[in-house]
Inverse folding.
DNA sequence: GTCTATATCTCGATAGAC
DNA sequence: GTCTATCGAGATATAGAC
């Protein structure tokens, strides 16, 4: 039995799709090509995903779940808020560097009409880790007096920006860690009283 | 003579394309629809743009030129570097709010395979204003000791993040200006010694 | 569940009259 | 330069045998 299980099949379809979408865009990637590279037939692909759009959205949800699972692993609610903040920041960047295609795909998806196809409650589910931390920080009154949505958005942007810089410049692992620490300090100074 | 001149025609083609791309994506927008909404025939569209890709890239270059022209208007090299920095930041945000489709399109384009089709020297042309300011800031040694590429990227990210927040929340013009000022201060603190 | 074969459609791009 | 008409390619999605 070399043949794949069902889960493995949807997995290899989504993995192939991810690789191709990042390289050629949603448009430039025919479902037939996804099927071929996943090692299944065209008909099988449409057995697991009713439409191409459904496949794209499912991929987005899966990628976000992977990111959130990674962050949850490195998050302990018993830690000090500053430590928890640091962990989210640093591990978000680490994940983004270890999973560049996935991270690119998230942004590609965000700036596409596909975003409107995601069920509303999915976004809530995804942001639990961040919301929890923000609420705790508000409770402890350690944030500057600004809307928390603004603070959250600016922190996200810092992560995107830092990621972009690190991918563009080709630093050694050591220098990279120094830069991450430096950017983290800037970010903390920016949002903390 | 109600008929349009050539320039007006490429203009209305690009304007229609912008509106449609933002709404339906590059994929979801047929050239036929662009032509119809621009008030020209399909054949005419392909007279002015050899391919659809060429049209998309031309639109990107035009939009970036509009942004840069706007920033150049509000930039005076005789001003103090901090003032110039402030002007770029504030007017970038102002432009992004007055030209939301254009600003969205820039980001949509950046996260698409189309980015690779832009001639390399085009990016240099586009970044002259920012590079000039950064060089002056380096010369005057007012920046924190970090790679200037990192600083530039983080500042851009702040602008994207602030834009996203302002578009999402529905503030009065007055509150909006307060937020812009606040974010500018955070950004300055972040990068200046 | 998986495959092959194919229906159906739409799109980008061209040809050629005016 | 602009239009109408259309070609040919390639896309999504389905049908039906196994």
């Amino acid at each position: 039995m070399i043949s794949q299980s069902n889960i493995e099949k949807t997995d290899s379809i989504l993995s192939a799709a991810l690789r191709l979408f990042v390289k050629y865009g949603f448009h430039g990637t025919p479902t037939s090509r996804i099927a071929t590279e996943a090692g299944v037939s065209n008909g099988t692909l449409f057995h697991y995903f009713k439409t191409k759009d459904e496949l794209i959205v499912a991929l987005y949800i899966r990628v976000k779940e992977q990111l959130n699972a990674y962050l949850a692993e490195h998050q302990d609610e018993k830690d000090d808020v500053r430590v928890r903040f640091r962990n989210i920041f640093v591990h978000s960047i680490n994940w983004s560097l270890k999973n560049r295609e996935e991270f690119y795909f998230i942004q590609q998806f965000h700036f596409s009409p596909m975003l409107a196809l995601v069920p509303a409650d999915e976004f809530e589910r995804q942001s639990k880790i961040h919301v929890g931390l923000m609420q705790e920080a508000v409770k402890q009154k350690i944030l500057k007096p600004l809307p928390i949505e603004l603070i959250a958005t600016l922190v996200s942007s810092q992560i995107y920006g830092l990621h972009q810089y690190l991918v563009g410049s080709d630093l050694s692992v050591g220098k990279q860690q120094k830069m991450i620490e430096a950017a983290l300090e800037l970010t903390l100074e920016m949002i903390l009283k």
User: Anything to note?
Assistant: Residues 6, 9, 40-44, 47 of chain A lie near DNA strand C (CB under 10 Å from a C1'). Chain A is about 75% helix and 0% strand. Residues 144 and 190 of chain A are 8 Å apart (CA to CA). Chain A has a mean pLDDT of 96.
